[in-house]
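User: quick one, sequence for these tokens?
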């Protein structure tokens, strides 16, 4: 199981749900006893309190006998069904659909819509609708003397049922939609943080490798000298000499490996640690892609008049790499990068000669996990996450991002713009 898949099985925090249920139970007890003792309304007082007591027992069970800190989808569904039926019985005894508190019957389902799976939500909606319809035709009268003075026409009476069902469906639809978008965004942000953590870890490992190479150099040199002395002393013992030669060759191999470790991190550290201009940023990024890509990268620096150096940021590096990487992935043969800067703004335009963004997702560019409805563009289904990460990282560093289809070329275009006063204070 992947780490982030736990959210599919444990979706609702138990302590939060218990607190909300206690608030609901307290409100029910207060309402029942207040109207009975203060207003002297006549209704089945004992039965209504017993129904509330069922809710108390279920909450005590949840508090003391359900040991997990998170409710699974199935457990949450069970307790929400109990809540719906408990409230349904209360309304049945106290006026049914005409009870002014009937609106609370839709709360458990709306609450579940942003926390539980689709099947659980559909089941809760169906149960709630059936209970609303049942309460429309079957229930005790409103508590007396209220029932003696409150009469409505059939049109108004049935419109209450219809309005409740419409409100239930629409609220659930919106909650499910926004909940899904929120979860996708959260997952994408977690993935972005994971990627950035790996970047920092790789830099840290590079420094550690360089330090290890430096520290191990002296003892390996000592071992090599000793092996040479042993070969001179034991040159008549052929079996031993062979072993010493093997040992010497392995020491030399270790030296070569350590040289590589010490050289590569130093090159990487120079790029990460030193302040350089944006044109150097782009040259380094393009150089890394040219080593592995067959595409042609065309960098235009003719309009770059501000060569001031900026503080190195891994987030800017990774954000730019994501957009250049997308252009490389979806271009036919060429990627065009234009750097424009003056005393006020700095602008990077990245274009490719591919097919561009699918029109059905163009307005949603920047959201994670986009999928085109066009079958011809299904191969671009992974486009959204890379752009989301790049956009988030660069916007965090004061950039404004515009993604669109190029007006001058056939492919996509990304415009990344900074105000210099923001860029130079990063």
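Assistant:
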């Amino acid at each position: 199981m992947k780490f982030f898949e736990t959210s599919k099985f444990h979706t609702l925090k138990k302590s939060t749900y218990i607190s909300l249920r206690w608030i609901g139970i307290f409100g029910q007890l207060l309402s029942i006893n207040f109207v009975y003792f203060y207003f002297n309304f006549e209704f089945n007082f004992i039965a209504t309190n017993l129904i509330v007591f069922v809710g108390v027992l279920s909450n005590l069970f949840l508090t003391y006998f359900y040991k997990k800190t998170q409710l699974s989808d199935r457990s949450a569904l069970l307790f929400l069904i109990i809540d719906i039926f408990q409230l349904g019985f209360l309304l049945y005894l106290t006026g049914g659909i005409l009870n002014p508190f009937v609106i609370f019957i839709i709360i458990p389902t709306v609450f579940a819509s942003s926390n539980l799976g689709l099947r659980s939500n559909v089941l809760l909606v169906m149960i709630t609708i059936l209970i609303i319809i049942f309460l429309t035709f079957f229930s005790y009268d409103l508590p007396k003397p209220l029932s003696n003075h409150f009469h409505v026409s059939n049109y108004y009476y049935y419109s209450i049922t219809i309005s409740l069902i419409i409100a239930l469906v629409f609220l659930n639809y919106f909650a499910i939609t926004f909940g899904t978008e929120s979860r996708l965004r959260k997952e994408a942000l977690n993935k972005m943080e994971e990627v950035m953590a790996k970047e920092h870890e790789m830099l840290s490992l590079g420094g550690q490798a360089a330090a290890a190479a430096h520290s191990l150099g002296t003892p390996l040199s000592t071992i090599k000298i000793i092996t040479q002395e042993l070969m001179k002393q034991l040159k008549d013992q052929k079996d031993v000499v062979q072993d010493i030669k093997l040992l010497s060759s392995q020491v030399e191999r270790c030296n070569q490996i350590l040289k590589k470790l010490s050289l590569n991190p130093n090159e990487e550290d120079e790029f990460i640690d030193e302040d350089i201009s944006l044109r150097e940023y782009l040259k380094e990024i393009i150089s890394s892609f040219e080593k592995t890509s067959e595409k042609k990268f065309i960098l235009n620096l003719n309009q770059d008049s501000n060569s001031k150096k900026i503080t190195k940021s891994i987030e800017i590096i990774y954000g730019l790499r994501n957009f250049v990487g997308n252009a490389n992935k979806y271009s036919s043969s060429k990627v065009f990068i234009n750097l424009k800067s003056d005393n006020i703004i700095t602008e990077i335009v990245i274009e490719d000669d591919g097919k561009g963004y699918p029109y059905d997702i163009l307005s949603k560019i920047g959201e994670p996990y986009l999928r085109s409805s066009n079958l011809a563009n299904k191969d671009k289904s992974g486009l959204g996450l890379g752009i989301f990460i790049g956009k988030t990282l660069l916007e965090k560093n004061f950039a404004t991002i515009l993604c669109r289809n190029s007006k001058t070329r056939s492919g996509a275009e990304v415009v990344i713009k900074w105000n210099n006063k923001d860029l130079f204070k990063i």
